[in-house]
Specification:
Layout: H1 2-25, E1 29-43, E2 49-55, E3 63-68, H2 73-81, E4 86-93, E5 106-113
Antiparallel strand pairs: 1-2, 1-4, 2-3, 4-5
Keywords: Membrane, Transmembrane, Transmembrane helix
Protein name: 6-phosphogluconate dehydrogenase
Organism: Tenacibaculum todarodis
């Protein structure tokens, strides 16, 4: 009986490890989005995660919500610095997520400041 119980527990642990590895290491898709960075926050009660939003339209009707992993310090710093500006983010989409990683399936891996297409060609007063 102890041997069967040990096999069952080992199988469950291996299956959980494989599931975690599948979710974490195999991306569903990769892409780039751009828009006005309207929110970046570190939120949560027991586990804090970095969450943000990008407005992809003039009226703010299209919102792209994303998460950032804690180990991406440079990305977090740049997002805080570019808050309120127009940015281009590179992201990966996972099949799912875990509560300690973030609220969304989209995880930003790189951020760059961009010029807004709404104000291209408009010259600033010098």
């Amino acid at each position: 009986m102890k041997k069967i119980l040990a096999i069952i527990i080992t199988t469950i642990i291996i299956m959980a490890g494989l599931y975690y590895a599948f979710i974490y290491y195999i991306p569903y898709s990769e892409g780039v989005r751009s828009g006005e960075l309207i929110k970046i926050s570190n939120r949560g009660v027991a586990v804090k995660t970095w969450e943000g939003e990008i407005s992809q339209g003039i009226s703010g009707a299209q919102i792209f919500s994303f998460s950032v992993e804690d180990n991406k310090v440079e990305v977090i710093d740049n997002l805080q610095k570019f808050q309120g500006g127009y940015v281009k983010v590179t992201y990966i989409e996972r099949f799912g997520t875990f509560f300690w990683l973030g609220d969304t399936k989209y995880f930003v891996t790189k951020v760059e400041q961009e010029e807004s297409p709404h104000f291209r060609g408009v010259k600033k007063d010098e």
